[in-house]
Amino acid sequence: MNSQNYLAGNQKQATPNMRLACGDHSFPLLNHELTMDLIAGMGFQGFDLALFGNRSHVRPEDIRSDIPGAARSLGQAIRRRGLEISDVFCIPWTDFTVLAPNHPDPEERLAARALFNDLLEFVVRIDAPGLTMVPGLDFPALGHKASLELAAEELQWRAERLAAEGRRFSVECHIGSVAAGPQDVQALVTLAPDLRLTLDYTHFIAPGYGQTEIDPLAPFASHVHVRGGRPGMGQCSMKENTIDYEAALDVLAVSGYRGYLAVEYVWIEWENMNRCDNVSETLLMRDRLLAHLNGNT
User: Fold this and answer.
1) What are the structural domain ranges in the chain?
2) Could you give the angle at which helices 144-164 and 182-191 cross, rounded to 10 degrees?
3) Which of 14, 32, 186, 208 has the fewest Cβ atoms within 10 angstroms?
4) pLDDT digits (tens, 9 = 90+) for 148-192
5) How far is Cα of residue 145 from the mean position of the Cα atoms in its chain?
6) What is the pLDDT of residues 81-107, one digit of tens each?
7) Span 3-293: which CATH code?
8) Residue 14 has what pLDDT?
């Protein structure tokens, strides 16, 4: 279903009611205090807190050593700048196999569940609306079908526990993941009905999927990442960007999305995502989104 048909089939006018957020992982070379100041100074309302093993300002082991204390200090630091916590985003390690939810080794899966349980406590204590993680990988020992089914089983277990706390659990189906294409994402959320998506068009545009193939995922989104992207590049400047974000916002609006749009430029070597001026590109994307949200496009 393309964007035009998706919109035409829904009588509700596309009038987005969304707020903008930005994550601390966009500016890894600044210290955390300056990063929070920068995001607030740019006028964002939401703050995505990254907990990335081996690479973020605040890392999973930092919060696990004192969950109540970490939730208290980080929550206060974020909110005193006038920001609301829009998401907690955890990637356990730079190697996606580490603590993958669908790892073939049962002991690794148990360790991944233990991490999740600590994250759940942290999310509740810091009063975040939800938690984003990554969905797992295709493991050769399992094959694709079994890898996807095991991922769904483990992710549903997590989603049920966060739902019981009134929070959402979502995954970012990224380049190279067990659900790297729109059809596999659809299969994943069918197998795990309480699971939600942190939707990022760039992870599907880069490997060559069309934007209209991604639009049907919008009803499953509970958080959204935005940045410039084009075929062959999971991150690029706004000048090079080929994603029609105005159309994407309209699709999200008619699907009922009322969450945050998190501008997410990153600075990592993975997929050559370290070739942008993140401050400038973040501001350019912010202004483009605001123009459409305010009806100026």
Assistant:
1) 3-293
2) 50
3) 208
4) 999 999 999 999 999 999 999 999 999 999 999 999 999 999 999
5) 24
6) 999 999 999 999 999 999 999 999 999
7) 3.20.20.150
8) 42
Phi, psi of 211 (to 5 degrees): -60, -35
Question: Would you say how long the chain is, in residues?
Answer: 297
Is the confidence at residue 7, as pLDDT, over 60?
A: no
- Looking at residue 274, its pLDDT comes to 82
Please report, as a single letter, which amino acid is at residue 159.
A
The partner residues of 224 in beta bridges, in order of sequence, read 199, 261
pLDDT of residue 16: 53
